[in-house]
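WARN no homologs supplied; continuing
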Amino acid sequence: MTDADHTNGGRLQGRVAVVTGAAAGMGAAITSRFLSEGATVIAADVDSSALEQLHERLSVGERLSIVTADVASPDGADGIAATATAKAGFVDILVNNAGILASQSFETMTFEEWRRVIDVNLHGVFLVTKAIFPLMRSRGSGRIINMGSSSFFAGTPKASHYVASKGGVIGFSRSLASELGRYGITVNVVTPGLTMTENVRRRTAPELIELRRQQRPLARDQVAEDIVGTVLFLASADAEFVTGQTINVDGGTVKH
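OK structure emitted
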C-alpha cells in the first residue's frame, strides 16, 4: 500500500492541485503526499514515460491525472490548464516545481545555455501561473507555491544562470503576492538546498555532495521528502495568512 492510499480526513481533502515537474524527485514526493492528504492532483512533466510510471506506482484511480507538457512553452502551460479545467473546472493549489539544475562557468556559458535555464526555471513559472490563475480567481482563493533554491542566498559559483533564474522566481513571487491577495490567493517560495534526487546524484560530483553534507548543521544528505512538509503547510488552511514569504529548507546551511 502506498502513501497515497491513506486518504481519510486529509488536510487537502477535496482540493485540486497542479504540480509541475511531478514525474520524479521532489515533484513526485509532493504529488504522493498531496494524494495521501486527499487532494486530486494534475501531475505535469515533460517526461511522458516517467509520468506513466508515476501514475502506475501511485495507483489512486481518478484522483491523479497526468499531462505531458513543457512548461517553457505557452502551449504546454495552456495544456496543463486545459487538463485541470476538464478534470475539475478549478484549481486550489499550484506547485511550480519544474526546473533545470545546471552547472556551467560564466566564462564558457553560451547564451543558448543561459536562455534554456531561464526559459524553464523562470519563464515556465510565469507561463503556468498565468494559465492557472483564472481557475483560482473563479474560486476566490488559491495557493501558489514556487520552488526556489538556497543557492540564491549563497551565490553558488558556476551556476549564474540557475541562481539568476531562482532569484527571479523570488522577485516574481513577492510582486505577485502583493497583486493577487485581493483574490484570496497566496504566493510563497520554498528554497531547498542540494537535494539528493536521482538526477542530482547522477550529475553531481561526490566531493560536492560531501561538502554540502559537512556544511549543514543537520549533517546528512537532503532528500526530496525533506521539502514536502513545508510545501504541504503552505498548501493547507494553516497557511491562510502567509503570503509573499520565502521559506528556506536546507538543513541550516544558509541562515535566512
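Residues 3-247 form a domain with the Rossmann fold fold (CATH 3.40.50.720).
OK
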